[in-house]
């Protein structure tokens, strides 16, 4: 193209800001940004802007927050922007009348090595499943979720004790670079477009998916083996947060989240879920083949704290 492509960007959370920032820094023309409507949260139900909205307002970029992406008024506004290309990072599914609008197409950044881990929560699920590598992928959007032709993929190694939050930050940086690389390739007219089945290993079995995680999915199952529990905790940390239930000495029960833990593989005869601690130097929970040492926890309604601080003043056991 003689002129740089006119880009409309779609995104809401922090991970999308990094990609938007990289496009701005690279000198691309962002003619509009689409993000989620404002939400109410916290005490007093205060209005909170998305990270993408805050960035967009600071940079005086036209902003759109449609409730319904099929709204004719929004679609009219979108056409008036005359986008050549659309970039999507951590946003909801686009209807065909939106993603098919620009001549150069619409591509998405996904936080896994597609076709593995399609879905809403790839960062969480690769850790929960104990993977040793993941990555970021750009692909052209089509009618289905995360199934379009691949553009670029970049592999990222996973540290054995890495949490979802830490992996998120690594993928955010890598993804921002890949978004700019993808736009440059599309701009040059020399862009790969590879069907996902062509990179799928036929001997690897069914594809692993990354469905949205709901609150009821976050409860820790102490009946599992140590590695499974350990991976579950780090895969949920810090969001949405793995949780369990405790019963205090007065028989009242309450919930708390576990953000950091360590595993210990050792034979024992204790019932899974049994607390082993001296209240001063260690706090661990029995699992099927060993123990999980709790390092950082957060009782409901309180701040995260060292697990030994949490023990002070409590006499309790798990249920």
What would you note in describing this structure?
With 319 residues, the protein is an alpha+beta fold. It is built from eight helices and 16 strands. The protein has helices spanning 14-25, 51-58, 72-80, 96-99, 122-128, 164-188, 226-235, 307-311; strands at residues 6-11, 29-34, 39-41, 46-48, 63-64, 85-89, 106-110, 133-140, 150-157, 242-248, 253-265, 275-277, 283-287, 290-299, 305-306, 316-318. It has a seven-stranded mixed beta sheet with strand order 5-2-1-6-7-8-9.
Quick summary of this structure?
The protein is α+β, with helices and mostly antiparallel strands. Helix content is 25%, strand content 28%.
Itemize the secondary structure elements and their pairings.
Elements lengths: L5 E6 L2 H12 L3 E6 L4 E3 L4 E3 L2 H8 L4 E2 L7 H9 L4 E5 L6 H4 L6 E5 L11 H7 L4 E8 L9 E8 L6 H25 L37 H10 L6 E7 L4 E13 L9 E3 L5 E5 L2 E10 L5 E2 H5 L4 E3 L1
Parallel strand pairs: 1-2, 1-6, 2-5, 6-7
Antiparallel strand pairs: 3-4, 7-8, 8-9, 10-11, 10-16, 11-14, 12-13, 13-14, 14-15
Helix pairs in contact: 1-6, 5-7
